[in-house]
Design a protein that fits this description.
- With 597 residues, the chain is of the alpha+beta class.
- The strands form 8 sheets. The protein has a 9-stranded mixed β-sheet. Strands 25-24-26-27-28-29 form a 6-stranded mixed β-sheet, sandwiched between helices. It has a 3-stranded antiparallel β-sheet with strand order 4-9-8.
- The chain is built from 20 helices and 29 strands.
- The two termini are 27 Å apart.
- It is elongated and about 115 Å long.
- The structure holds adenosine monophosphate.
- The site of adenosine monophosphate has 15 residues, from strand 11, strand 16, strand 21 and helix 16.
């Protein structure tokens, strides 16, 4: 397991990620992905897209990152997207008040759920001190701090806008168009991969808690009464669950079960959430998360976001801590209803009945020429009350007279004056607000998990080496190509031509001719390149006999194989059609010690 320091150091040295704007003193909470990190992140995004957009038959969109204020008034983020802030009067440092409590008080795991007043009280009761300068924090006020970055759209004071705190809102506000694109048919899913911004009070742990990060989100729109997920596709998937009941129990344990059983046993109540947990489990395994350091944890009630009816997190173990890497929320009709209420557009779909329905509608058409003289200023209210009564109790109009009560006063009206009638109407369907199920992945946290879980050390050629055992699909570079020595033009020509040939076959290749061959292997090991190809004198034959050395990263095993076979063999390995072990059966093993001198 990597210490955070070792991994951060490797990430910086090898160009995975580093603090942004360091030339200007750095900006807390902002990171730049270097060449290796950007490639790794891109591969994670591609693998996500391949699973959650393409394989699940969804559509991907790209919406703006700046959105106007009314969007967030409607979504609830303006009012409710807060964290608890406490500021040290002595050194001016800001802290998450709930995190201070969680760090200091053994049996409190979710202080956010306790509310501002209680957290303030606990800080006082436990005499908590500022983690930065040690000054007493008791008596400092705890405030709700809104996490959205505010901006202004257009010149002058413009129109207030915000950087989106989740990609989801970009999907919800476009629902009226997206439903047309889906021909009004539920269920359908829309995905988006892009940046989200949160002005975190205390960004920490490298890229784990940052102020700008990439989310990969799927919004699945369903008819809650009709649509069921294809649960059979994942019912046998084995998962480790940590439901609320176990979190509350003194000797709470993980439940090892399958998705199908978890639904049958009502551990996961929404089959849609269960379905996506099953799909996600397979995906995390595929991209290389260590599944012994992975679990799904249900949110405690106070922990749920303002929009979530039920929520499970995917969590990975990093440096001894459990980190949320994705959230799976049943958002119900919350978002679409809110946008429907706050905007001019319709956030519903028309649900056609199997058979048209005939409905009876009771109405009145009161004779105002009679009601006016009789009831004066109250006549209008009496007419409205008659209509309401017709809808709620049509039988009240059976007699000669009908009575209504307004503000405690009884009004009696001739049934003939009320002009009661029942009309028949044919309805073909109704407008319903779809429910939303949302898997929401943090790409940066996934990248960090993969690096942590892939970080390995062993002894090779009497030296300790560090290598990243990344899945070939995810590794930043597929293959590195080296000439054995760096001062032989013929070798350099052949090796660089071979690199071009592999690139043309769609393989990502890094070419390196500097330093000893051992050092070059170590460099590639440290960035997780699954294969290295070395061209030596046997690569100069120029006929079918021409061979090169292929070295596999984790085993450091080297094989000699004809250069003519190389591209096809590697493609088969990267496509998952072949294992390196198959190549070991067919090609000669080479046992050369490689020193880094
Ligand atoms: P949430 O909407 O809070 O459930 O966030 C969805 C996902 O975004 C989380 O599971 C994280 O992976 C990621 N995420 C949220 N906040 C941050 C942050 N400050 N830095 C990095 N990733 C984050």
């Amino acid at each position: 397991m990597a210490s955070q320091q070792a991994l951060t150091e490797l990430a910086k040295r090898r160009g995975f990620f580093f603090g942004a704007n360091e030339a200007y003193g750095g900006t807390a909470g902002f990171y730049t992905f270097g060449p290796e990190g950007a490639a790794l992140k891109r591969n994670v995004e591609s693998a996500w897209r391949e699973q959650f957009t393409l394989r699940l038959g969804n559509e991907e969109i790209e919406a703006p990152t700046v959105m106007p204020e009314p969007v967030f008034e409607a979504s609830g983020h303006l009012d409710g997207f807060d964290d608890m802030l406490i500021e040290c009067a002595e050194c001016g440092e800001s802290h998450r008040a709930d995190h201070l409590i969680e760090d200091a008080v053994a049996d409190i795991e979710d202080a956010e759920a306790l509310g501002v007043d209680r957290v303030e009280e606990l800080i006082r009761d436990h005499d908590l001190a500022c983690p930065t300068c040690g000054a007493d924090l008791a008596g400092e006020p705890v405030e709700d701090f809104n996490l959205m970055f505010e901006t202004s759209i257009g010149p002058g004071s413009g129109q207030p806008g915000y950087l989106r705190p989740e990609t989801a809102q970009g999907i919800f506000v476009e629902f009226p168009r997206l439903k047309e694109y889906a021909r009004g048919q539920l269920p359908f899913g829309i995905t988006q991969i892009g940046p989200a911004y949160r002005n975190e009070i205390s960004p920490r742990r490298g890229i784990i808690r940052v102020r700008e990060f990439t989310q990969a989100e799927l919004e699945q729109f369903i008819d809650p009464e009709e649509d069921e997920p294809p649960l059979e596709a994942v019912e046998d998937v084995e998962v480790t669950l940590y439901p609320v009941s176990e979190q509350h129990a003194d000797d709470g344990e993980y439940i090892e079960t399958t998705i199908g059983e978890a639904v049958d046993d009502a551990i996961i109540t929404s089959p849609w959430v269960a379905y996506f947990l099953g799909v996600a489990q397979g995906w995390y395994e595929r991209v290389g998360v260590d599944m012994d350091r992975f679990r799904f944890r249900q949110h405690l009630s106070g922990e749920r976001a303002h929009y979530a009816a039920d929520c499970w997190d995917a969590e990975s173990e990093i440096g001894g801590n459990w980190i949320e890497i994705a959230g799976f929320a049943y958002r119900g009709d919350y978002d679409l209803t809110k946008h429907g209420e706050h905007s001019e557009d319709r956030f519903t779909v028309f649900k056609r009945y199997d058979e048209p329905k005939t409905v009876e509608t009771a109405t009145v058409d009161p004779d105002m020429a009679a009601l006016g003289p009789e009831f004066g200023g109250a006549a209008g209210d009496v007419a409205d009350a008659l209509q309401a009564l017709a809808e709620s109790d049509p039988d009240a109009f059976d007699g000669d007279e009908v009575t209504v009560e307004i503000d405690g006063e009884i009004y009696t009206v001739d049934t003939e004056v009320a002009n009661f009638s029942v009309e028949e109407q044919t309805e073909n369907g109704e407008h319903i607000t779809p429910h939303v199920v949302e898997p929401s992945f943090g790409v940066g946290r996934t990248v960090y998990t993969l690096l942590e879980h892939a970080y390995s050390e062993d002894e090779v050629d009497d030296e300790t080496r560090t290598y990243l055992s990344l899945a070939p699909e995810i590794a930043p570079t597929d293959v590195a190509v080296f000439p054995l020595v760096s001062n032989d033009d013929a070798l350099i020509d052949v090796a660089s031509d071979l690199a071009d040939e592999l690139r043309a076959a769609g393989i990502s290749v890094s070419y390196d001719d500097s330093g000893s061959i051992g050092r070059r292997y170590r460099r590639q090991d440290e960035v997780g390149t699954p294969f290295c190809v070395t061209v030596d004198q046997d690569g100069l034959e120029g006929d079918d006999e021409t061979t090169v050395t292929l070295r596999e990263r984790d085993s450091a095993a080297q094989l000699r194989l004809p250069v003519a076979d190389l591209a096809a063999e590697l493609e088969a390995v990267f496509d998952g059609d072949r294992e390196f072990a198959d190549l070991q059966d067919r090609y000669e093993r080479v046992d050369t010690d490689v020193t880094t001198d």
